[in-house]
Amino acid sequence: MDKLELIKRNVQEIVTEVELEELLKKKDKPVAYVGYEPSGKIHLGHVLTVNKLLDLQNAGFQIIVLLADVHAYLNQKGTLEEVRKTADYNRDCFIALGLDPDKTKFVYGSDFQLTSDYMLNVLKLTTTASLNRARRSMDEVGRKMEDPKVSQMVYPMMQAIDIALLGVDVAVGGIDQRKIHMLAREGLPALGFRSPLCIHTPILLGLDGKKMSSSSENFISVDDSEEEIDQKMRKAFCPAGQVNENPMLELFRYHICPRYQEIIFERPEKYGGNLVCRSYEELTKVFSDGQLHPMDLKKGAAKYMSMILEPVRKVLKGN
């Protein structure tokens, strides 16, 4: 897989591909970043963007991870002390998931977001965007947006200035970050900064086939035990032969197949013996053809997801 294919793997959108190709030609080590709001458990939605950072790191990018403690505070996720503790937990999880600490720069928002230069640029950017634009930017990521706080309207302005002052070439995030990223692309040039490229990953389904939600508890957390993962998989939505909108297959597409060149489904001989798949395309074919039973797919997903998350569990046990 060449560099461009690696960057484009499993993304929903690149804004824009032409700019990306030009960046790769003129810069040996571009800078890509993701900002994570420390606000609770790390789940597979977060891991999806970590996977993309790993792809970018392997493609020669310098990686910056913003542990956005001030953002979390403004979005009502706890006191500054509470969110800073969560930020440390996030950092440890991301390293355990594979981000090389020697090649990844971890930055706390509070380290630079409280300076006069930063705040002046935020205030300048607020003069370029309407209140409605700021609110629309926060619709997907905000809390209690039926009655938003002023702090939540400042949030997207800060995110744009984060991109500017961190010297970012590429902003990475879930597709729910798109409106904020577009605000940055449009607003930063007027302040004398570069307009960032944007790479957006899809939003994964919850294990029940519905929108992933903390209130529904339909997700896998990185600190789930092997037994908890197995129990969640057994109850997961997985219609026989259905490829589209199947959360089990999404786990293989976005998390398992990028890490393992060969997937082995262990089955008794009376059910056909072990089945080996060497690509996601091969997996979808055998599943849609009925060669692989949904329960065997679930057992395989549980096994490989537990293997992926085992380093995280070890790190957290040691803390």
From TrEMBL:
SUPFAM superfamilies, sorted: Nucleotidylyl transferase (SSF52374)
Report the domain of life of the source organism. Archaea
Q: Where is this motif: 'KMSKS' region?
A: 211-215
* Name assigned to this protein: Tyrosine--tRNA ligase
GO MF assignments: ATP binding; tyrosine-tRNA ligase activity
Cellular compartments per GO CC: cytoplasm
Encoding gene, per UniProt annotation: tyrS
Q: Which residues bind ATP?
A: S214
Enzyme Commission designation:
6.1.1.1
